[in-house]
Predict the structure.
Amino acid sequence: MGLLVSFQQTILVMLLVLLCISCSEPRQKNSSESSSTFVAESSVLDNRIQQNVNQIFEVIPPPDQQQTATGPFTFVNLGQPTVVNAIGVTEVSNDAPVNGFPIGETLVTWSVNDAAGNTANAIQAVIVSAQVACSTSALFFQQRVWPLINNICMECHVKDQVSSGLNFVDATVPDFLDQNYIAMRNSAVLLDNNNESVFLNKISNKYNDHGGDSVLAVSSIDYQIFSSMIDRFGLCEQINISPSDFKLLSATQQLRKTTLALTARLPTVNELATVNSVTSQPQVEEQMVAIIENLFAEKAFYNRLKEIYNDLILTDAFKDNAAGLGLPLNDFDNRNYFGTTELMQQGYNGTDSNLLRQFASYGISQAPLELVAYVVKNNLPFTEILTADYVMVNPYSATIFNAQVVGQSNFNFTYGANWLFYDYEQFFPVKLIDNKNRSIPHAGILTTIPFLSRYPSSSTSLNRKRARYVFEYFLDTDIEGLASRGGLDLSNVIGTFPTLQDPQCKECHDVLDPVAGLFKNWNVNGRFLGNNLNWLHTRQPPEMLPPGFNNSLADALPESTSGTALRWLGIKISNDNRFVSSTVKTIFEGFTGIDLVNDPIYFQSLKTLFITSNFNLKVLIKDIITSPYFIADNSLTQDLTGHFSDVGTAMLLTPEQLDRKINAVFHGAKWVSPSKRNLLSSDSYLTLYGGIDSIAITKRTTQPTSIISGIQSRIANQLSCELVPLDFKQFISQRHLFPYVQLTTVPDGSINTARIKQNIQHLFSHILGRELLVSDLEVDRAYNLFAAVMDMVNESSIAQECQGDLLSTDPIVIDSTHTVRAWTAVVNYMLRDFYFFYE
Amino acid sequence: MNRRDFIKFASSLSLAATSGVTSSQLFAAADNYTGPLWIMVNAEGGWDVTSLCDPKGYNGPADVNNPARLNNYDKAKIGRIGNLSYAPPPDQFQPGGLLYNPNLFSAKTFFEKYYQDILVLNGIDSQTNSHDNGQLYNFAGRLLAGYPSFSALVSGSLASSRPLSFLTNGGYSASADLITPVRMTSSGLRALYEIAYPNRSSNPKSSSSQVYLPNDVEALIKATSLQRQEALLNKQYLFRIRNAMEKFRLSGAETVKLQGLAEDLEMRSPIPKASFNGRSNADRLYQQGRIALATYQQGVTASVNIHIGGFDTHAKHDEMHYPLLMDLLQGVDAILEEATLRGLRDRVVVVMASDFGRTNHFNKENGKDHWPIGSALFIGNSIQRIQGNRVIGETDDSHQAYPLDPVTLQADRTNTNPSAIKLTPAHFHLALRNLAGIENLGPATAYPIATERLNLFG
């Protein structure tokens, strides 16, 4: 009697209980109530029934969520429940409100059905607090509100046209987002006699007093977005982020992250000693700045910098395929110097010829990015990337261009000479003179063959594509965002030249076309035309606006600079605040993965710093690398609020970065797949792991996918297998992974166990950069894995693939104590870790 | 016993049957997806629909050199099947012409084969000549930056837990963070076995391959890793890092389904390369579709962006553009054949569109420039019904769009109907959302399309 009930009756009881609590409406949570009624019920059953818990279908809700309000309703990432003992899950649902959570606490009921017809429920609490950081409001404004303003309001609410005074500025204005944010905020505080928002009543035309045509229904999502923004203004508080708000990386961790980010290596012993010789954060920062200065001298830093800038301008499209760069070379008589016929006539064989041609192609294709590196390396104002009156060449491209490198004798490629001596990665600045004896009017990146070829023109595009990308890359301006797209009537355009005459076209073309005209001296394929005096504005009637900047007479291209129009443009850009904005954003995002627009205070400080340093990019990078954005590791308060939503980096390493990190952490190791591919293989892993080819795939994948996860698993399996035996092969004093244990160090509950844990602690530090106490739960977790695998092993030796060139009789291979395999499992486990694949 | 105590209790019982539901849900939507594979074919660059489904041509031999002609073929040669019209090859590509190529596919073949299933929308006004905006409008349905592509929207709404829910091969693939687009190109297939079977060492394609770890050890490592990820997540309070940890944790779920995909693609022979007659673009397009069909059949995909570029022919239009159009049709035909072979013909919906159209005349380099008026083609199935053998929307002889009556969908050729409207991508996107059953779900309501509701699909 008593509780001697059958399993089926147990289930029936539990189901009945579930039905009673499966409410569809959220309700207040009883703190004594468990998240799963099964558990609560099972706790009162006797032991025999307790044993049936194993077989009972259960659902465990995701962790309770706490978030700052983004408005009257907030979308919250609920996470996922865990289902236990399901016999085929057929449905998972919850009753979360579709339009977001209100401020306060809401209980979400999760329901899971299985194929046997069972249902299990669990409850998750969601708390939305009524505070919001202005930084997140700025992001919301940029992403959701500004597109609506631009699309709907800008037709009228510009340039003091509206008597109410609510006028916005268009995207050509520097800091237009800041200005428009402030304009809207100033309007947001206005209340009418009914204590209602004037702004919202206007946009909905509640009192029929909105002069414009565009009004929004109160039920529309667009109205809700504006309403949410109004609410945010009322709720937001100015937050100045300071390091004391966070748990920062330790000095060692910060140093490691810095050296990996800038130079793809681990810190040296001296560097570690330096940062650990001081105690306070300001002292650490001081030491870090000095170390960073040294890092700037390393080649790897410039490789990373070039990568960041290629992500922007994509000229690596020609890195492995410079054939597309051939046409502009027709003005240089040595263009075939490295042609196969020419070289083989000298005596070079086919292989050598290929190599020389590749080096020459490399020299031409890398010119824009090498200029970026050169300017930074030599502490020149970064504006010089657009104003440089020279181009970068390597010995091979210098030969093609017949260019004289100052202080260098001509490179000698005559067959028989030591031609392999010339480093194809060594670049020099030169001024080119073509075969018509014209001095090429260089203008930094803008006049390089790769840039002009990557963004070719046509007889109908008329350099507008080039101009468009100049605006996007260097002037922080999306040309296509300048005007509302809705309502365009392109089938009834006005005028023979609508870009000059039709108001709906002029909005964008008035901005774009003058800059397009500045490319007039270069043909569609990037070949220099000389001083082209016949641009379209000279025709009768004119077909295009005259070349210039900002479409004002004051900014028209002076006649005296007609032949160097692009250099004139470069100078104009370098004096424009938008160049500062675009550079700061590019560099910040390049090193942190963060879009900086949501912290206008810090953004402004970086811009100011960049300007006052005379555009010294190193100064900018130093500040970013030592900021809370880079070194914040966690929040000091355990409530997840919007205040801290923007600091801390979590960049999924690119395939190139991961390849370098493996090399750095494992001292020269490289992951190569069974089919001899690696992370840089352009036919497979490079793009599968989220990389770009700069041609068709131009945006990196920044979120992990199943494919990426599969690659990570393979890397973990392969590297751990290969590297653990290799490390044990070394004398203990020379090991990188296992300096505290021997093959015979097996758990004994005493000294050996302590050594094993110490080594685990070391692995966390070495592989993942995490500093844990030996007593940390994560060390225990890894230790438990180690011990479990030791017991699970039943093969007589390590896997064949892991043996490398070790003899079958080697103790490492035999692994009689099972420690090699246990350590392989631990290293494998660490190579699957978030902190390995992210920085 | 509270929840956290239960977790410890459960662990102590070594519950090996724990299974994780793999949905990270921003909106309350269950993932029991049984819908079709949504195939969005993106002819990037601006396709010339007067060379395809909205033919014009010149008026007889006397008109062949008329500088105002729209096309280089005689109007009299326009093909018709059922209610559909299709363009003939340009004169140079006709038999006897300088560019005649017997290996090229033909619009005649395509339309005669599929006309019963095809809905043609002509006279779609993209309201832009900008590539980016044209892509945005035609593949997301609204000219507002940040809008997710339809593929992302349907996957994010209905199949967010699938590991490869949204495959992309290029073109407009913005996802507004609803779902992570996954690249899975045909060149990536070479590595697929290595990725699907990460523990196989010597020969990933073989089940008898050596392995790096015993399976039980690998399973223990994975389980321990999941525990650590959960613990890290519970201790992390910075949103960005936390968010990344969450996505990292979820990305590992169901990678085992890649195995089924690898086996499928290995076991099922593709349509032979030779049948494409050397048309590599068509073959590449087909490969994109083949992968998507395989992943769909494995239950891991709901939508795919198929991509073919090169349509932006500002010079040498016929020479460059026409073969590409035929490759596009050949590729889509092959994809539909593959779907039939797999028994999935009734489980796909195909949408073919582009940034916009091309001008109603040739420029001085025999090219065609951007033109806001374009077309789109739709092929449904017996469940997602799109009534075929119909043309909605019309253009005049100079390829200007007539407005439509929103109820009868008839063209207002005389411009006398006050309620007539311009057909835009917003209209067909609203119809697609309705067809997919996502119109009233969270993601779609967060990215609304406000326009007239037209009964486009019948």
User: Anything to note?
Assistant: The longest strand of chain B covers residues 118-125. The mean pLDDT of chain B is 88.
